[in-house]
């Protein structure tokens, strides 16, 4: 079988297209290095060596950062939704609440939770230790959650729930910012998906934990629902203290990474941003760009619908 002139021309065109694509990739890589040159200690490495080093580094991050974030996410969700589990264990009678009062106590948490998320993330971008900031918030919200056990009336419960919302508001947006300081955009999606799985685990096992704690009813003269808040709050405080010692801050000063891995971690994030690394944008301008971006607004709507659907479980024991 012989090739026709048409086949030869098609083959030549295909080969030319492949060469052009390779040339574009190489040119793109060269442009990135022109914008953000490789650090001195990894400049001598080949692409294969950098890829292997990156794989090793990301594996380290996954083994340290993701379990910490996952556990804190579970505790964040469990502490927030623990009140629903106490409905059938006497809290309404002890605090003289009606069904409307109980629903209000659950909902009022978001009075503090929603407004504090943006200010919290404005704070976290200004400090040098975001990991410690998040762990400190976990300690504080654990203490606030545990203090629910001391509530003597409905008004005290409302005040504690608002404070719990304010302190828990740090975690979710802070977690997104924190992970974005370590992972590239391609890696971030999978990690966020994994964290939502952790949240589902918290939802699945939260009821079992509540049932176990409520078996302490009457111990030392305390009602079972009070024990629930004490136990969950103390666990959160303990985890926050432990994680504050082992949670890394930023790639450039992470003790769990070698010098080469730290350089690579910083360089790959800067390379992904490209020219944007050198742009100066104020915080208020960034907020304005966000609220005027239709993609952001669409995601806000989707997230709102998701939260509206998921929050219904807070009203059922």
| Low-pLDDT residue spans | 6-32
Biggest pleated sheet: none
**What is the overall shape?**
elongated
- Terminal Cα span: 76 Å
Arithmetic mean pLDDT: 82
Number of strands: 0
**Share of helical residues:** over 70%
- Radius of gyration equals 25 Å
- The fraction of residues assigned to DSSP E strands is under 5%
Description:
The chain has helices spanning 5-35, 47-85, 91-94, 99-107, 109-113, 117-124, 130-147, 154-168, 171-180, 185-214, 224-246, 259-273, 283-291, 294-310. The chain has 317 residues and is mostly helical. Helix 2 (47-85) runs parallel beside helix 10, helix 4 runs parallel beside helix 8 (154-168) and helix 7 runs antiparallel to helix 9.
Task: List the SSEs and their pairings.
Blueprint lengths: L4 H31 L11 H39 L5 H4 L4 H9 L1 H5 L3 H8 L5 H18 L6 H15 L2 H10 L4 H30 L9 H23 L12 H15 L9 H9 L2 H17 L7
Q: What can be said about this structure in brief?
A:
By secondary structure, the protein is an all-alpha fold. Helices cover 74% and strands 0% of the residues.
């Amino acid at each position: 079988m012989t090739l026709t002139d048409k086949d030869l021309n098609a083959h030549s065109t295909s080969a030319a297209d492949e060469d052009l694509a390779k040339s574009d990739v190489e040119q793109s890589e060269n442009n990135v290095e022109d914008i953000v040159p490789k650090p001195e200690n990894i400049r001598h490495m080949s692409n294969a060596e950098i890829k292997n080093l990156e794989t090793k580094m990301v594996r380290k991050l996954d083994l340290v950062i993701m379990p910490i974030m996952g556990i804190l996410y579970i505790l964040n969700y469990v502490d927030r939704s623990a009140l629903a589990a106490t409905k059938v264990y006497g809290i309404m009678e002890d605090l003289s609440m009606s069904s409307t009062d109980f629903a209000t106590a659950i909902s009022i948490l978001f009075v503090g939770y929603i407004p504090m998320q943006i200010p919290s993330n404005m704070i976290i971008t200004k400090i040098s230790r975001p990991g410690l900031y998040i762990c400190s918030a976990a300690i504080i919200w654990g203490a606030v959650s545990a203090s629910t056990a001391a509530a003597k009336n409905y008004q005290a419960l409302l005040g504690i729930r608002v404070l719990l919302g304010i302190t828990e508001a740090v975690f979710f947006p802070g977690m997104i910012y924190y992970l974005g300081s370590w992972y590239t955009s391609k890696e971030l999606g999978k990690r966020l998906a994994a964290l939502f799985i952790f949240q589902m685990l918290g939802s699945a096992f939260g009821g079992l934990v509540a049932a176990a704690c409520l078996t302490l009813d009457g111990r030392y003269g305390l009602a079972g629902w009070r024990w629930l808040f004490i136990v969950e709050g103390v666990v959160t405080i303990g985890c926050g203290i432990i994680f504050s010692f082992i949670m890394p801050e930023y790639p450039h000063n992470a003790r769990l990474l070698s010098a080469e891995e730290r350089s690579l971690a910083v360089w790959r994030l800067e390379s992904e941003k490209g020219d944007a690394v050198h742009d100066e944008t104020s915080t208020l301008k960034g907020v304005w760009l966000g609220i005027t971006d239709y993609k952001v607004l669409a995601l806000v709507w989707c997230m709102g619908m998701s939260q509206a659907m998921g929050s219904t479980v807070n009203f059922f024991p």
